[in-house]
Amino acid sequence: MKALRIITAIIQKLIGIINIFLIIIIVLNLFNLILSGIQGNSYITFLDYTYRIIYEDDDYFNFKKGDFILIDLNRTPMEEEIVLFNNNGTIELAKVAEMTYEGMKLETEDAKIETTNEQIIGTNIKTIHNLGDVISRLLSTNVLIIAIVIIVFTSIMQYILNKAQGKLKKPDFKNYNNLV
Asked: Labelling 18: which of 37, 101, 119, 152 has CA 20 to 30 A away?
């Protein structure tokens, strides 16, 4: 009987940890969906940062498939840094070749482009390898639905375990003082 209580307590703790992890996934997914709907950009901004996930190897920028690129929207780029910019409605990555009075000269794998400062969206401040794969999988509609189903299931399991242990007893109102 004592071993059963210990096992039940361990299972409840595990279910609690799983629920916390699932709630974080659900909140991040909903946050991502809401921001993309509100902002309407092809990139999502939060606290003056955005991100890019690399979906194929790029030798020019030295990015690998699955890299996560964090971009600061307020940082002024310097020469040789990688920037995110608006190229006639298309959001692209480029390397700053030269700073000019009017803007900058950017280099992509295919071309050299002169831009104004208004076309620059932000500057790459950090590249984290393989995090992009994880984020692209976690921030998907399928994972959102699965997380909601699992959290409902684990909540029901937790309720059943609590009831089996007798923690969900109906209150005895006779022991309380009358409010009148």
From this structure: 37
